[in-house]
Amino acid sequence: MTDKQTAKLALREHAANDAPADMRAAFAADPDRARTHSARLDDMLLDWSKCRVNGQTLDLLTGLAQACRLETRRDAMFAGEAINTTENRAVLHTALRNRSDAPVPVDGHDVMADVRAVLAAMADFCHGVRDGTLTGATGAAFTDVVNIGIGGSDLGPAMAVRALAPYHDGPRCHFVSNVDAADIADTLAGLDPARTLFVVASKTFTTIETMTNAATARAWLVDKLGEAAVGAHFCAVSTALDKVTEFGIGAERTFGFWDWVGGRYSLWGAIGLPIMMAVGPADFGRFLDGGHTMDIHFRSAPMRENLPVMAGLIGYWHRAICGYPSRAIIPYDERLARLPAYLQQLDMESNGKGVRLDGSPVAGVSGPIVWGEPGTNGQHAFFQLLHQGTDVVPVEFLVAANGHEPDLAHHHQLLLANCLAQSEALMKGRTLAEATEKLIARGMDEEEANALAPHKVFSGNRPSTTLVYDRLDPFTLGRIIALYEHRVFVEAQLFGINAFDQWGVELGKELATALLPVVETGEGAGERDGSTAALVAHVRALRKD
Ligand code: F6P
Question: pLDDT (tens digit, 9 = 90+) per residue, 396-417?
Fold first, then answer.
């Protein structure tokens, strides 16, 4: 057996035999548990004490991380080695937020000058738009920016722009991603073309949804302001600069990035243009500072004190050892409403793989299903299942100690109380005896209480982690996103997979391209499988164009 197999076997045996079975008992036996099962980076605290782990679990998990050469692999990533082996690429989104003087080599070339040049060009452009010196074709200042992109060219900026609402002092930002005409139609409906700037964001500049939406936006603008207005109202973000030129967007309005930045890791550079537009270059810089601070921590803190490492090890424990198929991300922070969607791409596109780095099949499992919604809303929707359903779903709570509305501080106290109460309830549960006693204490007769009590039992022992931070400012948002990026990396090393490719998105794209003429004309429907052919026929019978 290899070291990895031995370490995994030891973890499984530990889970079956001597991991804490009862969390109430674990807290009663160890009053110091919250301290020994948490890690801090300044104000940011990650608590995993409500998970069914103990010191031995952590020793075994860190032992597995060592057997998987986690630190060596981490250093290889930061050193610019081509760890994305199926695409033969370095993985250096961290260079986009490198705020130190240290060079970052890719194939022997320090990329930092290029990174800084793009950031400076973005800042110049944003200053011009924000202060009104850079105007639309009619001379009117821009009031609205529409980002047209999808996946990594949409989710990151959309999530961050919403998260940083208290810092907005620029134009309003809108996001169009879906090829469904409803998306662009509803967005354009309220906009003044003379005051609207479009950002076409696509790493490849070939993605059908983005190119279709960009063409529709262009036609809308031409219809209102004429062909000559296009240059003043469009800019682009891409690695495919030649394709941007073909589209008709000038080089001075094109912000580049590089193939060593994965789409879902790209909001730190040019893809972050809408974020910079909304909050300004200074706050965008603070966002980068936050990411860089988490990088330094990830590279230097010992495993047990390292937030991304511990988040990854606990995530792996839940997924691979305990066998829980999903994880819920529940920010008690309305402005992080898009964080679960953002993390779905980050995590599931990275770690939803069936083969290992060497091409052999994944023996057990790989990444979990990621989902979630902000609290407290989720409490009134799906928390019933989290507390009493037959599946155990580890929950990841996020909450700020302080909000941005000092005049409404009582809202924030309620928010905090709810967040903490939910993790407590998941952990503690309520026994049958407690449930019965409570009903009788309320005046119910014994027979009735005995009948109702089973419905009021909570098994408890349901794991959750909590990430607490001072306030959701640009710096902290940067730390949170970098934490999750590195956590995904840590889990990938334990699964033994490449977190940086995404071949699983290809087949659907190919089939959509092949099906377009079938949907348009009906020809070739008979060559599809029976279900698809029948669906095409039904759709075509209903269509009115
Ligand atoms: O659907 C997969 C994907 O390739 C993502 O990885 C990527 O973020 C998204 O499509 C958009 O790609 P692009 O930025 O090239 O338009």
Answer: 999 999 999 999 999 999 999 9
pLDDT the model gives residue 351? 98
216: region left, alpha or beta (phi > 0 left; psi from -120 to 50 alpha): alpha
Q: Which residues contact 130 (CB under 8 A, 6 or more apart)?
A: 169, 170, 171, 277, 280
- What percentage of the chain has pLDDT greater than the value 90? 96
CATH 3.10.25.10 assigned to domain 3-68+301-428+463-501? The reply is no
CA distance 150 to 453: 49
**Which residues are known to be catalytic?**
349, 380, 509
Residue 257: per-residue pLDDT: 94
Expressed in angstroms and rounded, the spacing between residue 211 Cα and the centre of ligand 1 is 12
Q: Do domains 3-68+301-428+463-501 and 105-281 have the same CATH topology?
A: yes
pLDDT in tens, 155-181: 999 999 999 999 999 999 999 999 999
Rounded CA gap, 27 and 145, in Å?
Answer: 51
**In the chain, what are the domain boundaries?**
3-68+301-428+463-501, 105-281, 504-543
Q: How confident is the model at residue 545 (pLDDT cuts 50, 70, 90)?
A: confident
CATH topology of domain 105-281: Rossmann fold (3.40.50)
Looking at residues 244-265, what average pLDDT do you find?
94
Supply φ then ψ for residue 6, to 5 degrees. Answer: -65, -45
Question: Using an 8 Å Cβ cutoff, are 459 and 153 in contact?
Answer: no
At residue 543 the predicted structure's pLDDT band, cuts being 50, 70 and 90, is: very high
Nearest to 67 by CA among 300, 303, 298: 303
Residue nearest to atom 9 of ligand 1 (CA): 151
For the CA of 153, the closest atom of ligand 1 is: 14
Six-digit token string for 368: 């979990």
Question: Which of 465, 481, 389 lies closest to 427, judged by CA?
Answer: 465
Q: Pick from 348, 501, 502 the residue to mutate for probing ligand 1's pocket: most ligand atoms within 8 Å of its CB.
A: 502
The model's confidence at residue 248, banded by pLDDT at 50, 70 and 90, is confident
Report how far ligand 1's centroid is from the alpha carbon of 207 (Å).
7
**Which CA distances in Å does 428 have to 26, 289, 417, 420, 462?**
11, 38, 16, 12, 8
Q: Which of 242, 241, 245, 274 is nearest to 257 (CA)?
A: 241
Closest C-alpha to ligand 1, atom 8: 152
Measured CA to CA in angstroms, residue 233 lies from 176, 194, 248 at distances of: 16, 8, 11
Around ligand 1, the residues with Cβ closer than 6 Å are 150-153, 202-204, 207, 210, 263-264, 349, 502, 505
**What whole-number distance in Å separates Cα of residue 10 and Cα of residue 248?**
59
Q: How far, in Å, is the centroid of ligand 1 from the Cα of 201?
A: 10
**Predicted confidence band of residue 1 (pLDDT cuts 50, 70, 90):** confident
Ligand 1 atom nearest to 201, measured from its CA: 14
Name beta bridge partners: 371. Answer: 328
ipTM of the complex: 0.97
